[in-house]
Amino acid sequence: AACVVVVLRTIAALRPGGPATDGLAERRHHHPARATRSAVPEASWPPPGATAPRWDAATQHGPLGARLDRALEAYFRRAMLAELGECETQKQKFSPGFAGVVEMAHALSRRYGLRGGPDAVADASRRVLRSLFPDWPRAPDGVKGDGLLYWFRRWFAAPRPVFSVKLVAAATFGLAHWLMGELEVGDLDPETEHVEIGDGRGQLVTVRRCRFLEEAACASVCVNGCKVPTQLLFAKDMGLPVTLEPNYEDLSCAFKFGVRPTPQDDLAARDVACFSACPAAGRHRSNHLVDFANSSSMGTRPLPPSSSPETCPSVGPPQQDITA
Fold first, then answer.
1. In a designed cystine with 312, which of 69, 87, 121, 182 is the match (CB 3.0 to 4.6 A)?
2. Mean of per-residue pLDDT scores for the chain
3. Contact between residue 34 and residue 252 where contact means Cβ atoms under 8 Å apart
4. Do residues 117 and 287 make contact, with C-beta atoms less than 8 angstroms apart?
5. How many Å is the maximal CA-CA distance in the chain?
6. pLDDT of residue 311
7. Of 68, 19, 306, which is closest to residue 175 (Cα–Cα)?
């Protein structure tokens, strides 16, 4: 029932003329060309093209209220701590609030990237996203730890794909402001965008100035901690294709629901120089690159289990490789 209320309130926020769609008819989305290796000046961060207002969590909130934003942030933090193998009592090693979320994203990249490469980082990030969905109602025997996601595929994505792809677009708009900043909903051109599911209406969610990318200041964290695992979550765990297109020149991002990602899409997101403000100082550079023919970003490998130990050591290399 709570999920139904959330969806109904989100759809109400998207009504024509409402705050989420006001002016969108005049501003048909055209996502700028994605950044190339030379597009981001090394000495400039945020980039000069990032002219959209920054998200101010103290005065702004998503369409469902500041209280829900804070609850979602806390829930996400706990999921990341669990993947890192950190006990709740050790969470003070990370900054409070959103800054801590960004720090944990870098910790995940260090922990898994050094030994497993970009696929290992994407696998860990996907496990974090999967853990946000409860294992309830319980799936049939043999489908372990996949309760709600299994029933979504079974009851929604498979029999009602058009409704489902629009539903998840609306849910993304309603629930993700706290993580990415101001969002807008628009339409996709079914012909030019190669839309596989739906007519394109309401299937584009645009991040005007991504809060996560700006604070992380790292292309590797953006791609392996957000883009690839999110695409995999929707495609493999929810049964719906989505393509994320980050733009490093203006910090925007396009979520194209119903559009299947290609190796060229992922390569364009990775083919960028390290940002001058990156806290990793270029140490994650090797994680920009990947062999797409055998990459988990294309869904060709099964998701390995977490290698996080049951005890609570400090964040460091995993006890075993998680590559499969």
1. 87
2. 81
3. no
4. yes
5. 55
6. 44
7. 68
